Structure formats: C-alpha cells, structure tokens
Amino acid sequence: MNISIVGAGYVGLVTGVSLAEIGHNVVCIDTNKEKIEMLKIFKSPIYEPELEELISKNVKEGRLSFTHSYEEGFNNSNVIFIAVGTPSKENGKADLSAIENVASHISNFIKSNVIVVIKSTVPVGTNEYIKELLDKTNNSRFTIDIVSNPEFLREGSAINDIFNGDRIIIGAENNKASRVVEELYKPFNIPIFTTSIRSAEMIKYASNAFLATKISFINEISNLCEKLGANIDDVAIGMGKDKRIGNSFLNAGIGYGGSCFPKDTSALVQIAGNVDHNFMLLKSVIEVNKKQQMSLIEKAKKRFTSLKDLKIALLGLSFKPNTDDIRDAASIVISEELLNLGATVTAYDPVATKQAKKILNKNIYFTDSIEDAIKKANCVFILTEWEEIKKFDLSKLTELMIEPIVFDGRNCFTINQVSAHIIEYHSMGKESVINLN
Ligand SMILES: NC(=O)c1ccc[n+]([C@@H]2O[C@H](COP(=O)([O-])OP(=O)(O)OC[C@H]3O[C@@H](n4cnc5c(N)ncnc54)[C@H](O)[C@@H]3O)[C@@H](O)[C@H]2O)c1
Fold it and tell me: Is residue 99 located within the same domain as residue 19?
C-alpha cells in the first residue's frame, strides 16, 4: 500500500519506519526541514533504540522516503496518517492547529480516493470535526474517508511496542475504510479492535488517564509507607501478584512526566468539563503528581534546612530512560526550584543533554559523565532510572562527593545494595539508610 505519514516525530517516524519494514511504501512528511535533511542522510532526529538502523535499511531497500513537501508526499498516496503534535494550550485544552493545518492541504494534492487516519491523540469529536473540514475544503474529485487510530507506543521502546503491541484500535466511519486499515496492519499480527470513532478517541484518553491514576495511587501508598515503616517495593510486589491489579505501573517515584500523560490528563479534565462533568478523580491524580515531583526537594530541605549554596547533582534528565525526550520531565521543575532556592546545579544524562540544554535553565552545568556531575557535590538527586545510573559504582560517591548523600527519586537501588556502602540514602517509600561512618 502507498502510505503518507504527516509528522515525523516520535509517533510518525516510528510508525512510518515500521510500516515500511512490513512491506508498505511509505513517505514521511514533516514541515521541519532540518529533520527531513537529517533523515535523508539516515540520521534519526530523535533517540529511539533500533530506529536509525531501520531507517537506513528501509530507505536503502526503496520503501521509505522523506520530504517536507505535501505535494510530493501526497502524490501517490492511498492512506494518509496524521501524527503531528497536539500539545496542551495554556488552559489545558488540546491544541489542534497542526492537525487543522495538515487537513487544509490534503485535497489540493491527492491523486486518488484516500483514507485519512488520525493517529495523534485528539479529544472526542475531533475526527468528526476534521472530516467536516476536509469535506468543506475538498476541491478534488476524490473521496476522503476518516479513521481514528490512536497510538499506544512508549518512547524508549517504541519499535518493540509497534511490533508487539497489545492491541490496535480502529474507529471508522464506514466498514470499507476500516477494512483497508485493518488489512494494512495485518502483518503485525496484533489483535485489532474495531469500534466507533468516538469510542476509539476515548480509549486513548481513558488508557492514559488510568495509567496516570495507577502511578499517582502507588505514589500516595509510597508516601504512606515512609510514614508507617513499610517498604513500597515489597508492597508493590505483593499487590501485583493479584491478577486483577497486575504488576506493571506500580513503581513509586517522583511522578509521571513526558509529552503524553500530563497533557492527556489535563485534556480529559477539559473534555469532561465541556459536558458538565467534574472529573474529580483525575483532578486529584494531577495534583498528586505535581506534589510528588517536588518530593525530593522536600526531603532535601528537611535534611539540610537550607539548600542555598549547596552543590546538587542531577542524574538523569529525560522523563524516562532510553529516550532523549525532555518534554514535561520532572527535571525541568526540580532544577528550576533548586536554582530558585540558591543551589548550584550540575546535571548529567546519557542521551538527553542536547535536548535538555534547549529547555532547562542556562545556569545549570551540564557534564559528560556521572563522575564530573557528582564531584564535590553536597548531594545527588536521581531523576531517571537509566541503566548507567543503576549500575554506577556507589563507592565512587564516597570518593568524589563532599558527603555521599543521595535522594533517589526512582528507587534505582535496593536497601541491601546501599547498606554495603558509606552513604546516606533516601529513596521513595522506604526507610532511609544512614551509614556515613
Ligand atoms: N510520544 C509518544 O510517546 C506518543 C505516544 C502515543 C501518542 N502520541 C500522540 O501522537 C501525537 C504526536 O506525538 P509525538 O510525540 O510524535 O510528537 P512530535 O512533536 O515528536 O512530532 C510531531 C511532528 O509533527 C511535525 N509537524 C507539526 N506540524 C506539522 C504540519 N503541519 N505538517 C507536517 N508536519 C508537522 C513536527 O515538526 C514534528 O516533527 C500527539 O498527539 C501525541 O499525543 C504520542
């Protein structure tokens, strides 16, 4: 099938590459010329395991190409995926301007009937609204059908997720369009669930809101564990053994971040508000998360009284491991608050430093190694559970820091691991280890 993907970001690029890998002819369109130029020389503009290898393989085998021109991109297309961003506006609503922009170009350049598949996360009713826009502006002799096909991949394991996803959701306005999209996905051999367009749109928000709820829930339990002398690791294992609960998404920490959960939870609160529904549970989930992001700072303030003039090393800046994505990462609000409190901040991340330099405060000292970040530091904040951080030799903390004091926001180490070292270790939902002599 000839497929165009509009938006070569985390979702669009991974989708395009994967559809090419299963044999489709794919052209990825992006208005960001710099991205397109990089892709043309087989360089991925984002960090995602396995992605660069698959880009160069599929381009060389003639199934994948890149352009910034809609005319070139839509020329041969039977199916157009829209995977542009839908960020939050100031008021929490989803900003649909990029999708509207793409929709306004479609009929000008198509050369046959097409199916437009909206992969971006959009509020319930958006597909119908875009369909109206498409019909209104359709000056071609071709028909344009619309299909909602929300995406569930996770950054950091996106390629694996596309090939081994739990489900593919297809919400279509008619059976013909649905069948074409089902057919296109068949080689992945993943269960397909077909439904109405509105239900498909809702499945995406409900899924993200539920996962965010699970995270805020376990974080509240973790805060209680600290006060009551229980161990959150054991509590989570014990809970997860119940099949009705399951053991995923029960890691206590400094809350969720990234480009999806914060914006999608806010958008769902807005969507509910539009139909006079006060989504109280989700509002609390968001509040708990905001508070949780500040929990390491609260612990450090208790320990040191004042953070003024302390040197604090941040380890991990991306919102989760194996990605360079900094959007809505806890590192943004934590570093800002530490600087406000008068601390000196050093920071290290294995791959996200380039992105972090664009977004984080200019007064942060970025380093090229953990060792350089922690040298002569008064304490360390662990913000992302990168393998490199989890494997770090803790005896180096004693060697290099003024005092080896760690606030671990991702529970990278067990109490047994740290107990063998000269260290003061504060983590989430567990007793602190104070072993400085
Ligand atoms: N990132 C994720 O993990 C993830 C997972 C599931 C769903 N989603 C959803 O998928 C959508 C895309 O997210 P993303 O993280 O891939 O975003 P992204 O910011 O990484 O990528 C969006 C791309 O679209 C391009 N673009 C913007 N306007 C354009 C236009 N008019 N024409 C052509 N290209 C244009 C941008 O240059 C950018 O490269 C969002 O709605 C998001 O909520 C994201």
Answer: yes
**The last residue of a domain, from among 231, 260, 291:** 291
Q: Which two tokens stand for residue 40?
A: 């043309």
Ligand 1 atom closest to 260 (CA): 43
Q: Provide the CATH number for the domain around residue 283.
A: 1.10.1040.10
Residue 153 marked ligand-binding: yes
Residue 334 tokens read as 């934590």
Last residue of a domain, one of 141, 174, 195: 195
Tell which one of 86, 155, 259 to mutate to probe ligand 1, the residue whose CB is within 8 A of the most ligand atoms: 259
Nearest to 218, CA basis, from 242, 244, 253: 253
Instruction: Tell whether 113 and 19 lie within a shared domain.
Output: yes
Q: How many CB atoms lie within 10 A of CB 405?
A: 22
For residue 91, what pLDDT band results from cuts at 50, 70 and 90?
A: confident
Active-site residues, by number, are 260
* Cα 31 to ligand 1 centroid, rounded to whole Å: 11
Tell me: pLDDT of 437 over 80: no
Predicted confidence band of residue 436 (pLDDT cuts 50, 70, 90): confident
Pairing of strands 114-118, 79-82: parallel
Q: Report how many domains make up the chain.
A: 3
Residues 188 and 58 in one domain: yes
DSSP-derived 3-state class of residue 73: helix
Query: Do 29 and 73 form a contact (C-beta atoms < 8 A)?
Result: yes
Structural domain that includes position 423:
294-435
Q: State which ligand 1 atom lies nearest to the alpha carbon of 259.
A: 1
Cα–Cα distance list, 205 to 7, 210, 419 (Å): 20, 8, 42
Same-domain pairing of 305 and 286: no
Q: Residues lining ligand 1, CB < 6 A?
A: 6-12, 29-32, 35, 83-86, 98, 101-102, 120-121, 151, 153, 155, 259-260
Q: How far is the CA of 326 from the centre of ligand 1 (A)?
A: 14
Ligand 1 centroid, distance to 158 Cα (angstroms):
14
Q: Please compute Rg for the chain using Cα positions.
A: 23
| Beta-strand pair 311-315/144-148 | unpaired
Backbone phi, psi, residue 327, to 5°: -55, 125
Residue in 5, 10, 326 to alter for ligand 1 test, most ligand atoms within 8 A of Cβ: 10
Nearest atom in ligand 1 to the alpha carbon of residue 94 is: 41
**What is the rounded distance in angstroms from the CA atom of residue 72 to the CA atom of residue 219?**
49
Residues in contact with 175: Cβ distance below 8 Å, sequence separation at least 6, in sequence order: none
Percent of the chain with pLDDT over 70: 100
